[in-house]
Design a protein that fits this description.
β4, α4 and β5 form a beta-alpha-beta unit. This protein has 217 residues and is an alpha/beta fold. It has one domain: Vaccinia Virus protein VP39 (Rossmann fold, 3-Layer(aba) Sandwich). The chain has helices at residues 4-22, 26-45, 79-92, 130-140, 158-171, 183-190; strands spanning 51-55, 71-76, 97-102, 115-121, 141-152, 195-203, 209-216. The chain contains six helices and seven strands.
Length: 217
């Protein structure tokens, strides 16, 4: 039987292969519905003169949304997605982007306390182990720094549930889980005395996504 790390590696490989197929049309399919969340995440994470890690940067849709005075490093598991992000950086002249690196969100290759802030839009619903990813985000953020997340939180009924079903049908192979519950994040915060939840609010469209901000003591 494969261990936890082996299963995560298998799931990562599947998602990486799927993103390679989706890379050419990802922006067309998902940019509009996720734009409000990306803007909110970039606004919350921007740091004048600070250094921010963008985990799951994908094709770089949110990179132009950050303050130009914020130094950015983006990581993603998919090299085809990263190549599109690099093209976007060149095309938009984003000189504040220091690097775009292929990396696993559950095993970040940065020293402890490297960044003033870590932002991860739409990531926790994709990674095999959300809490391991959160541990890594907390590890690389400086004391007093912040973690900014945007994710959907599963709904059971109503129009949001219908939208989640629509999105889930189109992104299931990307690892997107429409049933993702808040308790995954809430349980992690409870077991981390060094993490304080400072903001939680619903975002457009229709409250489908939730912004969460946490400070590392």
């Amino acid at each position: 039987m494969a261990g936890r790390e082996g299963l995560a590696a298998i799931e990562n490989a599947h998602v990486e292969e799927a993103y390679a197929r989706w890379a050419p049309v990802y922006d067309l399919v998902f940019a509009a519905v996720m734009r409000p969340g990306r803007k909110a995440a970039a606004a919350a994470a921007s740091r004048e003169g600070g250094r921010v890690l963008d985990v799951g940067v994908g094709t770089g849709l949110e990179l132009p949304m950050f303050s130009a005075a914020t130094r950015l490093v983006g990581v993603d598991l998919s090299e085809p997605m990263l190549q599109r992000a690099r093209d976007r950086v060149t095309r938009r002249g984003l000189g504040n982007v220091e690097g775009l690196i292929r990396m696993d969100a559950m095993n970040l290759a940065f020293p402890d306390a490297t960044f003033d802030c870590a932002v991860a839009p739409y990531v926790l619903t994709v990674v095999p182990d959300p809490q391991a990813t959160l541990d890594e985000l907390a590890r690389v953020v400086k004391p007093g720094g912040e973690i900014v997340l945007v994710n959907h939180v599963g709904a059971e009924t109503g129009p949001i549930a219908a939208i989640e079903s629509w999105l889930g049908a189109r992104s299931a192979e990307l690892g997107w889980r429409p049933e993702f519950p808040w308790r995954v994040l809430g349980d992690w915060i409870e077991r981390r005395p060094d993490i304080v939840l400072t903001e939680r609010r619903k975002l457009a469209p229709l409250g489908l996504f939730t912004l969460a901000r946490m400070t590392r003591r």
